[in-house]
């Protein structure tokens, strides 16, 4: 209510700064509902209508419970995507592929970086696990390994894009979080301290920018 908003003004100003309220032009509810039913809005990014949002919410609910099943394959997929994106050749590398040893070496770095985020077997050789994940992705025709007798090269297949995008989307939020944290720490001047609460707010601001 308006009264509760006014009473909480001091607390809101202390924790979040100034508060601005904008009143838009009123709409006729029946007319709005009729327009919505006639032509449901379509999401510009996904191309789906809001009628499918209930399914998206369901997938979001179960997301954290299935992440571990896609973790190792996601590490390999994100590493391949990063190598192809950061290469000077750009998309040409995605089609020509990258060296298998280079891929596994960089995947091992990402695997160690996310060690505290996922449950895994510490007594198992990490490189062997990632190599096994690459083999699984090869069997499922996401990747193909060429030149196995000489210098193995990992390349994408023609039907790899949907699966590759899914696997990358599983881990990208974690990678982005680490990037935000490291970038915020690097912005601190040498010899100057910052309260933890202020640092967290800075990270949140950077993540939302």
How would you write the strand order of the largest sheet?
1-3-2
Enter the CATH topology name of the domain at 68-171.
Arc Repressor Mutant, subunit A
Sketch the major β-sheet: 3 strands, antiparallel
What ranges have pLDDT less than 50 throughout 5 or more consecutive residues? Answer: 89-93
Quick one: CATH superfamily of the domain at 68-171?
Winged helix-like DNA-binding domain superfamily/Winged helix DNA-binding domain
Number of strands: 3
* SS field, number of helical segments: 10
GO biological process, one term: glycerol-3-phosphate metabolic process
GO molecular function, one term: glycerol-3-phosphate O-acyltransferase activity
Pfam families: GPAT_C (PF19277)
Protein name: GPAT/DHAPAT C-terminal domain-containing protein
Verbal overview:
- By secondary structure, the chain is mostly helical.
- The protein has a domain at 68-171: Arc Repressor Mutant, subunit A (Orthogonal Bundle), CATH 1.10.10.10.
- It has helices spanning 2-7, 9-16, 29-38, 53-66, 71-86, 91-96, 100-113, 126-139, 161-186, 196-208; strands at residues 98-99, 143-146, 153-156.
- Strand 2 (143-146) and strand 3 (153-156) form a beta hairpin.
- It comes from Aphanomyces astaci.
- One of its GO terms (molecular function) is glycerol-3-phosphate O-acyltransferase activity.
- Pfam families: GPAT_C.
- InterPro entries: GPAT/DHAPAT (IPR022284), GPAT/DHAPAT_C (IPR045520).
């Amino acid at each position: 209510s308006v009264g509760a908003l006014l009473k909480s003004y001091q607390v809101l100003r202390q924790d979040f700064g100034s508060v601005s309220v904008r009143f838009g032009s009123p709409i006729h509810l029946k007319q709005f509902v009729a327009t919505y039913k006639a032509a449901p809005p379509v999401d510009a990014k996904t191309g789906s209508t809001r009628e499918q949002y209930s399914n998206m919410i369901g997938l979001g609910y179960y997301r954290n419970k299935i992440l571990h099943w896609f973790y190792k394959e996601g590490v390999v997929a994100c590493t391949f995507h990063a190598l192809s994106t950061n290469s000077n050749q750009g998309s040409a590398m995605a089609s020509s592929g990258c060296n298998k040893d280079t891929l596994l070496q960089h995947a091992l770095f990402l695997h160690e970086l996310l060690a505290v985020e996922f449950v895994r077997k510490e007594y198992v050789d990490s490189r062997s696990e990632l190599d096994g994940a690459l083999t699984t992705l090869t069997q499922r025709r996401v990747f193909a390994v060429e030149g196995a007798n000489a210098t193995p090269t990992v390349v994408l297949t023609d039907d790899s894009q949907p699966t590759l995008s899914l696997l990358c989307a599983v881990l990208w939020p974690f990678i982005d979080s680490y990037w935000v944290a490291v970038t915020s720490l690097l912005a601190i001047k040498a010899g100057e301290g910052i309260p933890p609460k202020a640092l967290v707010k800075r990270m949140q601001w950077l993540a939302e920018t």
